[in-house]
Amino acid sequence: MSTTPNIDAPKFKTESYEVLVVGAGGAGMRAALALTQEGHRVAMISKVFPTRSHTVAAQGGINAALGNVTSDDWSWHMYDTIKGSDYLGDQDAIEFMCQQASEIVRELDHFGVPFSRLENGKIYQRAFGGQSQNFGEQQAYRTCAAADRTGHAILHSLYQQNIRLGTTIYEEYYALDLIFDQQGEVAGLMVMNIHNGEYSILQSRHILLATGGAGQIFRNNTNASINTGDGLGMVLRAGLPLQDMEFWQFHPTGVAGKGMLISEAARGEGGVLRNALGEPFMQNYAPKVKDLASRDVVARAIATEVQQGRGCGPEGDFVLLDLTHLDTDTIKQRLPGIRDISLTFLGVDPVEQPIPTFPTCHYMMGGIPTNLNGQVVCPDSQGKQTPVKGLFAVGECACVSVHGANRLGGNSLLDILVFGRQAAKTISQQLQTEQGQPNLNNLSLDDLELSGVRKRIQRWQSKTSYQEENLHSLKQKMQRSMERGCGVFRNQQSMQHALQELEQLETSLQQVNLRDHGKVFNLERLAAYELENLMAIAKATVHSALARTESRGAHSRIDFQQRDDTHWLKHSLYFSAGDRLVYKSVNLSPNQHAPFTPKARVY
Ligand SMILES: Cc1cc2nc3c(=O)[nH]c(=O)nc-3n(C[C@H](O)[C@H](O)[C@H](O)COP(=O)(O)OP(=O)(O)OC[C@H]3O[C@@H](n4cnc5c(N)ncnc54)[C@H](O)[C@@H]3O)c2cc1C
Q1: Cβ count near 247 (within 10 Å)
Q2: I want to staple 36 with a disulfide (CB 3.0 to 4.6 A). Which of 167, 488, 528, 598 is the partner?
């Protein structure tokens, strides 16, 4: 199914909106809902049917100090998040997020999210890693859950609310690139209709990127195949930086050899990790909280057990997540999705047998740098962080930064909703102060040349009948290079090697032409656009990681094992031109609470 787009025509079909929201996951949906509610002309764009966005796969839950099970306080949540971030998170942003959490969850309840309930009718909350009461004392129960399908419940409720209010949705449209006008201001977006291959321009002075994560740069990952970091690619091509790209979360319990997620909820409900000797080994790594230590700590512990020869199976390459001692009803009622995954992909019923697991890439802590209002920021010539007029980013693609060097489970669903709502508020205020309709002249060919988007469209028109190298194999090679060179543990040598491989792959990508089936299939063109983004993100990751000569949170270097606050308590900003890195300081000054000074992180 393809038509040849008329790329030489001086004008593309154009529509204009007050706001474009790119992405229909939790972040995009929450923002679009708030904007539509305020009566703005909004279009939400998604490359898949909205409820297939990755948010739908979130299992364990969303954090809020509701105190339904154990007493709780937003400032304890704030402390845990800062400690979990290995002190790289910005304390003003974390404070803001934790303060808003209860209201965000109550709002979800009112939107119709079917949360699991306690006997007294209150929202069910479970234990998750890295959560404590009273600044590090006993375990807290803070993660609000709809069984182990919380994301599914949230995304569908938000979708229904958007439909109810009539948000315009471009579904199965692929956003290629941002378009800036000749004054350098945000002016629109080039999109491709995936059904018929037609390109068109959506014009707007306010664009919110909510394009989700990019876990597809690693071979084993929990992410959907659509998580290719398109928003990040767009931002890099626009000459803007990406922040903290060295920090990728490896979830401790992926299905061994396959990568799908077995939620932390399994350990939250009492599951225990065991090595080949049957030992519950987490007691050796985190004596106090054991299996509920922070994710980076548990992932390293598993990798270490395997490296030291205590792995299970014929290859000794995984450990076991044991739920067999739990009540069968707990598994069936609280973890039905986990049981399904285990049965489907491993043929293992966790009621009877432990689940083979190994760390898998799960989440990117880094992303498009923003301030608390979701405005994309970039250092000016004096190094001052300045908002890019009209450009916003929220959700997993953004780095505000509330997760720092390591995210706590249950904090991403919170992040996407808090900042989705906040960015929408900011945009709405800006629109109200603007006089009448935004000033949008029809974009000319010059604007498109300037934004480089026309060249990119033309690039993937070329076709060939013979292909030595194809997109799929290039993608697999990139994923393997990243896993070997920049995985749970990394060092200078492994990363240098990955970088060399990435550079070769990039050259190969430039030489690939799409297959000639008499025409070029749209999905093949889409895969090419996505792979360009993934490659750019992989390179950003390796460059940022090579430069950071310390270990912090999820960035574990064998050659620099200590955290080094003297030199590295700072965020990295990577620009693709010249692979340049600059740094900015971490915000250690919350607005209301006293600051939490960095100290050793023990669980
Ligand atoms: C398996 C799994 C389980 C998880 N469980 C939890 C959990 O229990 N608790 C928690 O807090 N976090 C969890 N997370 C993390 C959390 O779910 C995600 O970080 C979060 O949902 C991301 O939301 P988002 O709105 O930013 O992006 P997504 O939900 O990924 O949505 C991205 C959107 O962008 C659109 N898009 C992307 N590129 C383009 C393009 N070029 N053109 C048009 N549209 C585009 C997509 O179509 C999609 O609509 C989990 C993640 C995974 C993978």
Answers
A1: 32
A2: 167
pLDDT, mean of residues 68-85? 98
For residue 504, what pLDDT is reported?
96
Nearest CA to ligand 1 atom 50: 58
Q: For residue 366, give the DSSP letter.
A: -
Closest atom of ligand 1 to CA, residue 145: 8
pLDDT > 80? residue 438:
no
Q: Is the CB of 341 under 6 A from ligand 1?
A: no
Confidence of residue 466 (pLDDT cuts 50, 70, 90): low
Please state the atom number of ligand 1 nearest to the C-alpha of residue 50.
Answer: 49
Alpha helices by DSSP H, listed for 372-521, are: 411-433, 445-451, 453-459, 471-486, 492-511
Please identify, by atom number, the ligand 1 atom nearest to the C-alpha of residue 211: 34
Distance 226 CA to ligand 1 centre (A): 9
Structure tokens at 248: 């990728």
Domain ranges of the chain: 62-145, 253-360, 445-562
- pLDDT above 60 for 5: no
The pTM of the whole model exceeds 0.90: yes
CATH code reported for the domain at 445-562: 1.20.58.100
* 310 assigned to active site: no
Q: In CATH, what number does 253-360 get?
A: 3.90.700.10
User: Catalytic one among 142, 295, 421, 557?
Assistant: 295
Helix segments in 38-143, DSSP class H: 74-84, 91-111
The predicted-structure confidence for 242-272, as pLDDT tens digits, reads as follows 999 999 999 999 999 899 999 999 999 999 9
What span, in angstroms and rounded, lies between the C-alpha atoms of 531 and 68?
Answer: 45
What's the number of CA atoms in the CB half-sphere (13 Å) around residue 560? Answer: 18
> Whole-angstrom Cα distance, residue 151 to residue 265?
13
Asked if pLDDT for residue 443 goes beyond 90, the answer is no
Which segments within 232-367 are labelled E, that is strand? 242-243, 248-255, 272-274, 319-322, 355-364
